[in-house]
Each structure stands twice: as structure tokens, then as C-alpha cells.
Write a structure and sequence with these properties.
9-stranded mixed beta sheet, about 300 residues, 4-stranded antiparallel beta sheet, alpha+beta, about 20% helix
Length: about 300
């Protein structure tokens, strides 16, 4: 949409972003963004946000269509496999690089959009963009993830995750060799005081408990099985980083870039390997296993010295 007008008397001599916000009924930051994008012309020349409107000048404003950051984009997702399809829920094998649901700042593929493209119909009272999502995996983490199809399953499974009755088993390759070989990491996690997008073990963080045991040791790195008692954002990555055994490939939390390159990793070696929960209607146990994706298999072979 394009708006064309002559600078009115009251706007002459004022900063363009401030005056434009009033004239168009938008926020000043939105007006500044239009200027930064080159969408505001004064007498045919691109106008900067801090410039002043000139009396009698001709102004042309192009207002582009903005994608709703919470809109579900229905599109097939490469690598999104179905591990278990039930009348009440579906367990997917989420590939790396896919978010659970739409969110501000994320423009990539989502589990919700991929399921919609595959013909799955989700009916829950959750926010539309989070339809059926009862728990999430990080964009950079692959593996088993359950999505509720019905209102009943959504309510029951959501409560099961809150009550910590769901078995969440992850496999991770961490640098070095943890000591002891089997243990529990009980350390509170909160936002990193110096980095909004990172988390850290901090005194006033939320209680966070991680149980682990070594499965296979390679010297420079170790394959561990992890059972989560709580489900904080980046919990496994933060806890092992705090032990000075970050997940291999996890450059955000202190992993060695040389080892990551050696193992062909472009993300952390972390996989949601198994998911176990009680069926929301029958009460019978449900257990689903997700195999390692190719990039993680390659890294393991490299550690084992296999061709």
C-alpha cells in the first residue's frame, strides 16, 4: 500500500519519524523502520528518520505487508517423520533447524506448520500458533516430540509434563569425561546476566535437575544418557557447560570449535532419544524411540574411528 500526501503545516520542521507516526497513526518505531527500509520519500528522495519534513514537500510512503510472526505457515518440513500416530496424539521425529511453533523472530519451518501440511488436524484450547504443543525441543535439538491432537490429550499431557511424570531420555556427546561416570546435576538455571539469549547456572535461577550416566567414552569426548527431572530451556547444555563438559559442537556454551569441525558438527550433539508417558485415555504406557540423525551418527563414527 502506498500513501502520498503533501507535508501539512503542523508537520513541517519536525522529525520525520515522529511526525509520520502521528500522521499515519502508527508507533514511532514503526515509522522509523519504514524510513530505514527506504519506504519514505520526500520530494522523490529517500528520507531518513531524523530528517525534517519540509513545508509543502511531496511525501510518498510505501507500507509493505508484514507477516504475522505468530501465523502458522502451512508447509512441508523436510525430515519431519511420524514415529507414532494415535487418535489422541502424534509423536514426531523433529529434525534440527525446526522450531516447535511460530514465535517472534523465527521465520523458519515449524512442527505445527509441518503437521498441518501433512494433513493433521489439531484441536486444542492452546494458542493457535502453539496448537497441540505440550512441550518443546530447541531449534538446534533433534528427536522425539509429542503433539496432542485432541483437547483431552492436550490437557492430560500438559499436566503430565507439569507433574514430571513423563520420561524424557536424551543422548548427548559431551567433551572430556564427566566424573563421576554417573551422577546428578542439581543447579538452578536462569537467564545469563550478560547475554539475553543465553542461560546459565545462577543463584536465583529456577530449580533444575539433570541425571546422567556414561554410555561410551572416547577420550576427547563421551556419549552420555541424560534423564531430565525438570525441563528448563537449554538445561542439558547449560548443566554440562557448567561442569566444563559442554556438548560437542555447542559453540554457544563453550565447546571447542576444532573438535566440532573434526566431528563435522554444525550444532550441539544432543538428541531427544526416547519419550515415555501414559496414554491420555487408556492409561497404558507409551514409549517411543528416535534414532540418531545422520550428522550425529557421523560424529559418533568419527569418535570411534570407524570409516
Amino acid at each position: 500500500m502506498t500513501e502520498t500526501f503533501t507535508v501539512p503545516e503542523g508537520a513541517a520542521g519536525r522529525r520525520i519519524d515522529a511526525a509520520l507516526a502521528e500522521l499515519l497513526g502508527i508507533s514511532r518505531s514503526a515509522a522509523a523502520l519504514l524510513c530505514a527500509e527506504g519506504n519514505v520519500l520526500q520530494d522523490g528522495a529517500v528520507a531518513g528518520k531524523s530528517e525534517k519534513f519540509r513545508a509543502g514537500a511531496s511525501v510518498q510512503v510505501t507500507i509493505p505487508e508484514r507477516r504475522d510472526p505468530l501465523a502458522v505457515v502451512v508447509e512441508p518440513v523436510d525430515g519431519l517423520e511420524i514415529l507414532l500416530d494415535d487418535e489422541e496424539f502424534v509423536v514426531v521425529d523433529k529434525p534440527v533447524g525446526v522450531a516447535a511453533h511460530p514465535s517472534p523472530g523465527w521465520v523458519g519451518p515449524t512442527v505445527v506448520g509441518g503437521l498441518a501440511a501433512a494433513g493433521f488436524r489439531i484441536s486444542t484450547s492452546g494458542a493457535q500458533e502453539r496448537a497441540g504443543i505440550v512441550h518443546r525441543l530447541d531449534v538446534g535439538t533433534s528427536g522425539a516430540m509429542v503433539v496432542a491432537k485432541t483437547e483431552h490429550a492436550y490437557t492430560v499431557l500438559k499436566q503430565a509434563f507439569r507433574d514430571r511424570t513423563v520420561s524424557k531420555v536424551y543422548h548427548a556427546v559431551v567433551q572430556g569425561l564427566p566424573d563421576p561416570l554417573q551422577g546428578t546435576i542439581d543447579a538452578p538455571i536462569g537467564r545469563h546476566p550478560g547475554h539475553d539469549w543465553r542461560f546459565a547456572v545462577i543463584e536465583d535461577g529456577r530449580p533444575s535437575v539433570t541425571h546422567y550416566e556414561v554410555l561410551e567414552a572416547f577420550g576427547k569426548a563421551t556419549l552420555v544418557e541424560v534423564h531430565l527431572e525438570t525441563g528448563r530451556t537449554h538445561q542439558i547444555r547449560v548443566h554440562f557447560s557448567a561442569l566444563r563438559h559442554p556438548c560437542a559442537g555447542d559453540l554457544t556454551y563453550g565447546a571447542d570449535p576444532k573438535l566440532a569441525a573434526e566431528l563435522g558438527l554444525t550444532r550441539q550433539w544432543l538428541h531427544a532419544h526416547q519419550l515415555g508417558f501414559t496414554h491420555p485415555s487408556t492409561g497404558k504406557p507409551v514409549a517411543v524411540t528416535s534414532p540418531y540423525p545422520q550428522d550425529l551418527q557421523y560424529a559418533l563414527k568419527a569418535l570411534r574411528g570407524e570409516p
